[in-house]
Amino acid sequence: MTAGPSKTIAPVEIGGKLVGPDQPVYVIAEIGLNHNGDVAIAKQLIDIAHEAGCDAVKFQKRTPEISTPADMRDVQRETPWGTMSYLDYRYRVEFEEEQYTEIDNYCSKLGMHWFASPWDVPSVEFLANRFDVVTFKVASASVTDLELLTAMKNTGKPVILSTGMSTLEEIDKAVETLGTEKLVMMHATSTYPMPAHEANLRTINTLRERYGVPIGYSGHERGLQISLAAVALGAVTVERHITLDRTMWGSDHSASLEPEGLRHLVRDIRIIEEALGDGVKRVFEGELKPKARLRRVG
Ligand SMILES: C=C(OP(=O)(O)O)C(=O)O
After folding, report:
1. 63: left (phi over 0), alpha (psi -120 to 50) or beta
2. Where would one find the signal peptide in this protein (predicted)?
3. 56 CA distance to ligand 1 middle (Å)
4. Contact partners, residue 284, CB within 8 Å, separation at least 6
């Protein structure tokens, strides 16, 4: 499984964009469930991602009766729509064909990619058969669901595999199932919000050397520093949750970026890309005058 540090890593094409080393960082705004079941909020978040310069927006697609653990289904939950079972809440926030068609049309008008992490096989079929999504994402929680991964692989689309809450042995099995040809992997730690000491960003290098595929970063921290450091360490894609307002009701809002944070993230990623350069030591034109003025010898 060790690709070796010197192996050239081939980029993966996602919807006409190359994702890999020496390519622009592919920035994914994870809407997830932060639309709270409201397509108007989803569209506002798509606008925010587009204006910030993100490449893609991402959703989560579930078939609630399959993906909700049996012992959770009847648990009562206070929601903005009243007290309901966890299963009913899952249905309440799930988008179906009508909403995804609206999203699909909206994104194509803006020239934005959209895709989702399907959490069960019927959700893979739903996304593959009804929409021409550019890629599939494996959520960290699904790394060991090899039936789900096989369904994604069989679509022939590229797959983005997140690796939070997973051991290298579990990731090995996922990679054996998915193959490496159209695979992008994401380093992730699935703590919400993630403290800095659990970021372990050098894992980006570990994964790159072990699997020889482009490695990105899926972040759940507060703030921007850790995502920006991931880019400096070579992450080829960055995914962050976004929200209209961190105080909104729902589990993912508090560890999400608000519009201004997202704008700063993309702005700073583009500056870092430029600043990383090609590693060839050279004297820049702009250094010549200071050189003439300051260097005494040679
Ligand atoms: C939970 C998800 O991703 P990650 O594991 O990267 O946070 C997801 O994509 O649905």
Report:
1. beta
2. none
3. 14
4. none
